[in-house]
């Protein structure tokens, strides 16, 4: 039946329904909001590649899948190789370490003697059945707790990665449909469409520039690390220069610290080698100087400003990375530039007109 409501009340009612739907959606995606923000970064970083793949293949589903794999496979290879290397190094350290030499140091905090098989053997000798039951209960409870914790963590990570990949896939495949629906709903000549198009262009410039900077910086770092390792004195050796070079490139997205998170610990390692041996200390000094100039300062001044900032102020972009990560956590590295671009575009294209209309009302 038709209720005797005015058009204004019907409009207000539908606005309330839309707002309620947006609130429910925001609450639903809040636990995985970081994954969705990261998916937006991946989408803008790969959109140009996807368009070329579409032109070459023609099938939208296959093109989106190929684009996602082009992003996923290199990341899996680097992360998998880094994890395998770390596990191998830790296993070697544990296999060749002797805890007895650290007993005097750790005794005020941990009694290493209690960690050996002696107490268990003594308990078995006094009461074998009770000792067996106790050790079995401890083993099962500890193993169950560790397995449950690890399984929960792995499941949470896999769910977030899966959602990110699905979100990227559908954004790449159906972004034109979403844009067409929005333009058709509010009118293609509306002011908000022009503002969102401007934001869209800036986001693509910044995020594509981030990826290009990571790739170029990785090449710089791999070249410098391998070259320094080749000319290093006999005692010194840069461990896994290729892997560390790739991780240095990825380190550019770490706010505030950047690639220093990789080459500063490497420099400390080289100084430790020099101080514990008769090796000359000039090499660690030379290494950190060359790395800071060739890999850190020069690319940061020229590459980031050339590839990432675009028409935006470079200082504002760097400020967005740092403040975004502080305010929102790890995904703030990607959310910060999005908010910055939205604020800059609205302030430049919308605020002057609003201010002029406000002055005309005075």
Describe the structure.
Helix content is 82%, strand content 0%. By secondary structure, it is mostly helical. It has 2 domains: 31-98 and 157-188, no CATH class; 190-362, no CATH class. It is globular.
Keywords:
single chain, 362 residues, mainly alpha, 2 domains, AI-2E-like, transmembrane
**Strand-residue proportion:** under 5%
Query: Tally the helices: what do you get?
Result: 13
The number of domains is: 2
Low-confidence stretches: 109-118
Order of SSEs: HHHHHHHHHHHHH
Oligomer: single chain
What portion of residues is helical? over 70%
User: Helix/strand/pairing class, anyone?
Assistant: mainly alpha
What is the tally of beta strands?
Answer: 0
Largest sheet report:
none
Specify Rg, calculated over alpha carbons: 28 Å
Set out the fold topology.
Layout: H1 7-29, H2 33-57, H3 60-96, H4 103-106, H5 118-126, H6 128-186, H7 191-231, H8 241-250, H9 260-276, H10 282-309, H11 314-328, H12 332-349, H13 351-361
Helix pairs in contact: 2-3, 2-6, 2-7, 3-6, 5-6, 7-8, 7-10, 7-12, 9-10, 11-12
What can be said about this structure in brief?
This protein is mainly alpha-helical.
């Amino acid at each position: 039946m038709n209720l005797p409501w005015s058009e204004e009340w019907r409009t207000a009612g539908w606005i309330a329904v839309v707002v309620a739907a947006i609130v429910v959606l925001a609450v639903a995606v809040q636990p995985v909001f970081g994954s969705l923000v990261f998916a937006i970064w991946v989408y803008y970083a790969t959109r140009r590649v996807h368009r070329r793949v579409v032109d070459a293949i023609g099938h939208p589903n296959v093109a989106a899948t190929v684009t996602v794999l082009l992003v996923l496979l290199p990341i899996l290879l680097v992360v998998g190789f880094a994890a395998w290397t770390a596990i191998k190094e830790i296993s070697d350290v544990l296999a060749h370490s002797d805890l007895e030499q650290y007993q005097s140091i750790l005794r005020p905090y941990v009694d290493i003697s209690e960690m050996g098989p002696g107490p268990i053997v003594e308990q078995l000798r006094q009461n074998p059945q009770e000792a067996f039951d106790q050790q079995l209960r401890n083993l099962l409870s500890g193993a169950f707790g560790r397995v449950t914790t690890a399984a929960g963590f792995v499941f949470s990570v896999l769910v977030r990665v899966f959602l990110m990949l699905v979100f990227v896939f559908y954004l790449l495949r159906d972004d034109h449909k979403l844009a067409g629906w929005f333009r058709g709903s509010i009118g293609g000549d509306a002011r908000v469409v022009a503002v969102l198009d401007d934001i869209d262009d800036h986001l693509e410039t910044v995020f594509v520039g981030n990826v290009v900077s990571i790739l170029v910086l990785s090449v710089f770092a791999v070249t410098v690390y391998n070259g320094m390792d080749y000319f290093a004195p006999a005692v010194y050796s840069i461990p896994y220069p290729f892997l560390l070079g790739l991780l240095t490139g990825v380190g550019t997205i770490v706010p505030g610290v950047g690639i220093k998170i990789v080459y500063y610990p490497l420099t400390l390692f080289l100084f430790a080698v020099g101080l514990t041996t008769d090796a000359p200390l000039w090499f660690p000094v030379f290494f950190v100087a060359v790395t800071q100039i060739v890999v850190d300062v020069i690319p940061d001044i020229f590459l980031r400003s050339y590839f990432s900032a675009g028409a935006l102020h470079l200082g504002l972009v760097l400020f967005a990375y740092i403040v975004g990560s502080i305010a929102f956590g790890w995904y703030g590295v990607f959310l910060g530039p999005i908010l910055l671009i939205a604020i800059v575009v609205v302030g430049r294209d919308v605020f002057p007109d609003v201010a002029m209309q406000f002055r005309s009302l005075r």
